[in-house]
Amino acid sequence: MSRVLSQLLLFLIGIAIVFMFKFKRPKFYRPLSWKLSVLATGLYLGVLIMLVPILYMLPAKDFIKTAEDKDQPIASSLNLMNNLYNQHFPTEGDLDKLKGIYKNSDQTFKLDSSKLSFNLQPGTENYHVLIERKDLDDGEIDVSTYVTAQYVGEVNFTKRILPPTISVENGMLSLRAPDRQTFEFKQLNVDFTMAQFNNQNSSIHEMSSHFANHIIFIRVPQSLEINRGVLGDRIQII
Amino acid sequence: MMSLKEVDLLSISLKQYVYKLKAYSALFYVLLLAQIIALFFSLNGISHMSSGNGELSVSVNTYSASLVIVFSFFWILFAAIQLTTKQYKKIENPLVTNSISGNLSNIGFLMTACVFGGFTSSLVGVLLRIIMYFTFDRSQIISDEFILAFSDLLLGISVTILYMVLISGMGYLTGVLTKVSMAFVIIIPAVIIGISKAYTEIFQSLIKFFTLESSLPLFALKVIITSILIFGVSILLSNRGEVSQ
């Protein structure tokens, strides 16, 4: 709808410009107005030229940098998910080494029970829980959360993904997904006159999205009894 | 003797060119207005993409100053057509003139307009970036292509000027043809629409001849040769029109 409206608006502006030519023509004959025109156009061009050095002086540190190579992190993420589905589980050390996999939280909880059950709340369907037993009984649960590569176009925003909220109470580990996050990006395309000679597509850049999966890696004391309940397919003991 | 005539023609054309620059200078206001309107539209973004899943939504707004260039193209097209109209021809009345000098001065005016339009329309892209920098949340701006390389800016200016020269030639020829016969007011759009519909491939290859050229020197050569041909035909037709009148 907005596209139709904007096209209509463009058409109307075109008509307005044509009519300006048609009806304002007598004013163009004013013999002395050229001085004013030269002044106005000169000022306009002067201001625009002055803006060029200003543009190059602006600090660019706040901008979003695009990824130089997104293929490898995405491939690495897909490979990891494929391994999970095929029951090939990584260790925490593996996850730390994988390119494109980002650890977004690390927490330790004191155990208040000899058993551990799980409460995975709605919205956590994309979360894969891996449990690894420690070599000792230290009475603590270590939880690390990982997120796989998340891209839109060439922009990697994996590090902006919030970790889930995790709590351990009365032998129950609860996992709650963060509130829905909204990301807004602004992309500037070069003019088509430049793109023609720079082998660039001036219209719309490839903005395909690659959405992330989450991995919750839990390290539990050796003798802790684990009750996966009905969530056996989402919680894996490695 | 021949050489004297040439000098006279050139000096007369040059005087007319200067005179027309002053007389038609108000045309540049329309360009300024068109560019400011296009800038205003460009600030709203040229496209929007959004996607998401249950956890998050991502949207990307794309901005470009291409619309400013397109508006400038329309301006030079209309300006070129206008120069051939009777109302504008009246401006030449106080001058000693003939068809060739009138055409040469018109072409000189159009070339000046193309250079001015090419510079300003490409530089409005710089203004767009600066406005975005100060008004938008910078943490949302993707750095790619925001920082415009100076060489790219010069390239953009050159290419825009060349395109404007080509379009002004087409506009001028259209104006001259309609002066020869008003039937061309209907024939020209009919031919353009007809070719684009019936001979789509020919029409597309004509457009691609310029738009898909990725070598700047070759592109410049194509535009210059085509423009010389178009303006040459315009001058010839204009002379014939004058003789027949």
Q: How many DSSP-defined strands of chain A?
A: 13
* Helix content estimate of chain A: 25-40%
Q: Provide the gyration radius of chain B in Å.
A: 22 Å
- Estimate nothing, just give the exact number of structural domains of chain A: 2
Keywords (chain B): Membrane, Transmembrane, Transmembrane helix
Keywords (chain A): Membrane, Transmembrane, Transmembrane helix
Write up this protein.
- The complex is a heterodimer of chains A (238) and B (245).
- Chain A contains six helices and 13 strands.
- The longest helix of chain A has 25 residues, at 33-57.
- Chain A has helices at residues 2-23, 25-28, 33-57, 71-85, 92-97, 192-195, and strands spanning 102-110, 115-120, 127-133, 140-147, 151-152, 155-156, 165-169, 172-176, 181-188, 209-210, 214-220, 225-227, 235-237.
- The two termini of chain A are 53 Å apart.
- In chain A, the strands form three sheets. In chain A, strands 1-4-11-3-13 form a five-stranded mixed β-sheet. A four-stranded mixed β-sheet of chain A has the order 7-8-2-12, with no helix packed on it.
- Chain A has 238 residues and is an alpha/beta fold.
- Chain A folds into two domains: 2-57, no CATH class; 71-237, no CATH class.
- Chain B is mostly helical and 245 residues long.
- Chain B has a two-stranded antiparallel ribbon.
- In chain B, strand 1 (47-52) and strand 2 (56-63) form a beta hairpin.
- In chain B, helix 5 packs across helix 9 (216-244).
- Chain B is globular and about 75 Å long.
- Chains A and B meet through helix 1, helix 2, helix 3, strand 9 and helix 6 of A and helix 1, helix 2, strand 1, strand 2 and helix 3 of B.
